[in-house]
Specification:
Elements: H1 2-7, H2 18-29, E1 61-68, E2 71-73, E3 90-92, H3 98-112, E4 121-128, H4 133-144, E5 160-166, H5 171-176, H6 178-184, E6 188-190, E7 207-209, H7 215-228, E8 232-238, H8 241-256, E9 260-267, H9 278-288, E10 293-297, H10 300-316, E11 324-327, E12 350-355, H11 361-368, H12 380-388, H13 425-453, H14 471-474, E13 478-480, E14 486-488, E15 499-506, E16 512-520, E17 530-532, E18 563-564, E19 573-574, E20 582-583, E21 593-594, E22 599-601, E23 608-610, E24 612-614, H15 621-646, H16 651-654, H17 658-674, H18 684-718, H19 731-755, E25 759-763, E26 770-776, H20 780-803, H21 814-837, H22 841-871, H23 879-889
Parallel strand pairs: 1-4, 1-5, 5-6, 6-7, 8-9, 8-10, 10-11, 11-12, 24-26
Antiparallel strand pairs: 2-3, 12-15, 13-14, 15-16, 16-17, 18-19, 20-21, 22-23, 25-26
Helix pairs in contact: 3-13, 7-8, 9-10, 15-17, 15-22, 17-18, 17-22, 18-19, 18-20, 19-20, 20-21, 21-22
């Protein structure tokens, strides 16, 4: 039987192919003469012998089949029990004819390449489908039987070998074909089907997808919406497996990124939706007014009814839906099934995700030089006739009233909606599929050549290899195509590639311009996987090139946070101002953030700025006033001291115990000067010295006053006859009182410094926009112990002086001391509540004022009367006057 098949002459059939039958039927319905079509395409049949010989002296002609879909019967479906004989409105989708042209272009390039398959020739075979179960099954079997109706891979004269099939266009085709091809383990490379089930290797082990996984597209949609700040979008999705996958996968990602839906429209059966249905039209028109951005997902078959609705709204109702349309890669919306259903206003400025493509210069040259009389490609006369409205007499294709095709017509002159010059994403996928098969075949041939060189007797020529042996080479291919991109499959048998983002500009003459504005590339480094060139985007004319906004409410500006309205979606919210001390830097911030302690919000609560460091400075008015007053009273003290030194031998100075007086003046001078420890920037040393030096010096001052008072009292008591107090009168008692009282305060201060010394710190909280550099007292108890001891000495001095106030004025200072202690105690009693009620530098100013006021009180009350007598009334500063007053007093 095999010998008979080899010797039997082969007859080339003249019957039209299934696709030609569809075209013939269409022409007949249009009452055109089509008596006969002679096919001169690339369907290699029996009797075509090639001269390329292998090492065994036999011809090797490897066949790659392509399952094309560009003659579609209105996208109608037919059940298995209904033959497709009913009246159909067949149309050639001109843009889809790229399936043939790019396939032939790639085959020609490979056959001309001396380095790729040098001892074999690739041949092509095509099958057309009717986009239904019967058409898909028939076309698949036709490819397997090499269009002979013979057993699988029947080879006339053993010259042909089918090794792979590329196709089909829709998920409907691509999912139906593997059920037949899996029986023979025939590799199938799909170039346009996004059905995720095809990635299941258990169910479809022989399927290789020349398109990427859908996951990067979903991520890209989210990133695109986030990039432009679109959080309120509409969604139109087809009711099929692909639409269900999008709803299940994309919607959670959108909601997770705070992107909500103004509406969701699921197209159940678009071909049964009448364009005259007012409810459908009004619903679509009304829903579109809720947002400026609409995401559309579905394949060309399911979305064509939706396009007709938009066409009816724009052309008939004069209500174009001018929005930012975001189209997924599943719908090639620029390819119009009905050339009249063109919506230039609605779809102008559309952003669409498409299969990744690259520029192949030779392909454009191939298209520009295409001539139907010179290129015998599959159904090219029918394509040319449909594209340019001309007739072919040579091919028995005659259109009454139309001119004859000259072959000089150029494809570039066709509108972009009918035929696109350049390599689309779908064409690029087919181009890479053909090269993937060629490189896998080359790898297999190279491997078998090595086996032959090693003496493997099992080595056979390529025509004796079964398709299932081809899989291991195909799944591991990795090569660079002519555009310089690396092509390889991932572990799921999908092309490791991404998506392009295309901005489509439409014109009223049905021409379009596609502008590449972005890319989704999962293979790129992290952070560069999503790119968008927003300045290159041309928006719909409705927006006047202003970036469209699409939010439920106006975005919350920095300085505010958003609070979701009760019972509404997360994208609908209010924008309250951040509370005091809080900021928000971003638009639509979820919450406000607290500034660091050393910073505070600016006026708009947008940024944190460093707090201004404040302390009682010599440069500010308050510091200048206090420092000036301290210098002034210090100068007065020096003057008083100088006057008293000059008149130390006068009676009034001698009568008031010159030694104690001199010690008191020095102590007062030091009190005035210690106030300078409180002015200026606090440091570690100044903080240690401030309160301790102040406490010790003031204790010394009050001790001197107490010693002076005790001395006066004892002096008067000693003047009485028989009084035993005479022995206590003298310098020794006064010095002992001063030293003892001062040492006690010194001991308290030393204990304070040893246990919990003061230290500089920043007060961050007293002022909103300032932080005060101040001295932390370390131990508050020790601080108030120092003040308490000083107050105790003052009270004792006041009490003793009060009881001695009736002694003769000339010889005693009891009244002056009483009054000075009264001023001293009044100042420090008022100091405590005032000190506790103030913060920051004003607390320091209160203490300085108390120091200066109390010291000035002592200076004025004790020394001013004597200064008056010494300077202004020297006649009173005599012994006679003192004795006279004494006698008067007694």
């Amino acid at each position: 039987m095999e010998q008979k098949l080899q010797e039997e002459p082969c007859v080339q059939e003249e019957l039209p192919a299934p696709g030609e039958m569809a075209v013939q039927k269409e022409v007949q319905e249009e009452k055109l003469e089509l008596p006969h079509i002679v096919s001169k395409n690339a369907d290699y049949r029996c009797g075509q012998q090639l001269k390329v010989k292998n090492d065994f002296g036999m011809s090797e002609n490897i066949v790659i089949g392509e399952f094309v879909s560009f003659i579609l019967p209105g996208f109608q479906e037919f059940a298995y029990n209904t033959p497709p004989t009913q009246k159909m409105s067949d149309r050639i989708l001109l843009n889809y004819y790229h399936q043939v042209l790019v396939f032939v272009f790639a085959m020609n390039e490979i056959n001309k390449n001396a380095n790729l398959l040098p001892h074999s020739t690739l041949s092509s075979i095509f099958a057309q489908n009717a986009n239904n179960e019967i058409g898909t099954a028939y076309g698949t079997m036709d490819l397997l039987f090499l269009k002979h109706g013979s057993p699988i891979n029947y080879m006339c004269g053993k010259s042909f070998k089918l090794m792979a099939i590329i196709g089909g266009l829709t998920p409907h085709n691509s999912k139906q074909m593997p059920h037949i091809l899996n029986i023979y383990k025939m590799p199938q490379l799909t170039y346009s089907s996004f059905d995720p089930s095809l990635s299941e290797k258990t169910q479809f082990p022989s399927v290789y997808r020349m398109i990427p996984n859908e996951s990067p597209q979903y991520v890209g949609i989210v990133q695109l919406l986030q990039h432009f700040g679109w959080t309120w979008i509409g969604l139109v999705v087809s009711e099929d497996d692909s639409g269900e996958m999008l709803l299940r996968t994309l919607i959670p990602q959108l909601l997770q990124n705070n992107i909500c839906f103004a509406f969701k429209e699921i197209l159940k059966d678009p071909w049964r939706v009448s364009v005259q249905n007012e409810k459908t039209l009004e619903r679509i028109s009304y829903l579109s007014t809720k947002t400026n951005v609409i995401l559309v997902h579905g394949d060309s078959r399911s979305m064509e009814g939706f396009r007709i609705i938009l066409f009816f709204l724009e052309i008939v109702k004069r209500k174009p839906i001018e929005r930012v349309w975001i189209i997924t890669a599943q719908w090639d919306f620029a390819t119009v099934l009905n050339s009249r259903a063109f919506t230039p206003k609605s779809f102008n400025g559309t952003l669409s995700f498409t299969l990744h493509t690259n520029y192949v210069a030779e392909y454009e040259k191939f298209l520009e030089t295409l001539n139907p009389y010179q290129s015998m490609h599959y159904l090219i006369p029918q394509f040319w006739s449909r594209a340019f409205g001309c007739a072919f007499l040579t091919y028995k294709l005659y259109l009454p009233g139309a001119g004859f095709c000259t072959g000089e017509e150029r494809l570039r002159s066709l509108p972009g909606t009918e035929f696109e010059i350049g390599m689309s994403g779908q064409s690029y996928s087919i181009y890479n599929a053909v090269y993937a098969v060629a490189h896998a075949l080359h790898a297999m041939l190279s491997s078998r050549s090595k086996q032959k060189a090693m003496g493997d007797g099992a080595t056979r020529n390529l025509l004796n290899i079964h398709p299932w042996q081809f899989h291991s080479f195909l799944k591991n291919i990795r090569f660079n195509n002519s555009a310089g991109e690396e092509i390889f499959f991932d572990k799921n048998g999908e092309l490791a590639a991404g998506y392009d983002i295309i901005n489509t500009i439409t014109f009223s003459n049905r021409s379009i311009h596609k502008n590449h504005v972005g890319r989704i590339d999962p293979q790129a480094p992290k952070g560069k996987q999503f790119t968008i060139h927003r300045n290159a985007i041309v928006w719909n004319h409705k927006f006047n090139q202003i970036l469209p906004q699409s939010t439920c409410v106006e975005s919350c500006h920095p300085g505010h946070s958003r609070i979701v309205r009760q019972g509404e979606q997360i994208c609908c919210y209010d924008c309250p101002q951040c509370s005091e001390g809080m900021i928000s830097k971003l638009m639509d911030a979820d919450h406000c953030n607290k500034c660091p302690e050393d910073q505070h919000p600016n006026k708009n609560q947008v940024h944190c700025i460093p707090k201004h460091i404040i302390y009682l400075s010599y440069r500010e008015p308050l510091g200048i006033i206090l420092a000036s007053f301290a210098l002034f009273v210090s100068l007065i003290t020096l003057v008083v001291m100088w006057i008293f030194i000059q008149h130390q031998n006068t009676p009034i100075v001698k009568a008031n115990n010159w030694n104690i007086t001199c010690t008191l003046l020095i102590a007062l001078l030091l009190c005035f000067l210690c106030s300078f420890l409180f002015i200026g920037q606090p440091g570690k040393v100044t903080c240690l010295l401030r309160q301790t030096v102040f406490g010790i010096i003031f204790s010394l001052s009050v001790s001197c006053v107490l010693a002076k008072t005790i001395t006066v009292v004892l002096a008067f008591m000693a003047t009485k006859p028989g009084n035993r107090m005479r022995k206590w009168v003298g310098k020794r008692l006064a010095v002992s009182v001063i030293i003892l009282c001062t040492l006690i305060q010194t001991g308290i201060s030393v204990l304070w410094l040893a246990t919990s010394p003061p230290f500089p710190e920043f007060d961050m909280h007293s002022k909103r926009d300032q932080m005060t550099l101040q001295c932390n007292e370390g131990s508050v108890h020790m601080f108030y112990t120092v003040l308490g001891y000083m107050g105790l000495l003052a009270i004792i001095s006041f009490t003793v002086a009060f009881f001695a106030r009736k002694l003769p004025d000339t010889f005693n200072e009891a009244k002056l001391i009483t009054f000075s202690m009264l001023v001293f105690c009044s100042v420090w009693l008022s100091f405590i509540p005032t000190y506790l009620s103030t913060k920051g530098k004003y607390m320091v100013a209160v203490e300085i004022f108390s120091i200066l006021a109390s010291s000035t009180g002592l200076l004025a009350c004790i020394f001013l009367p004597k200064f008056y007598i010494i300077v202004l009334r020297p006649e009173l500063n005599t012994r006679d006057q003192l004795v006279k007053k004494k006698n008067c007093g007694t």
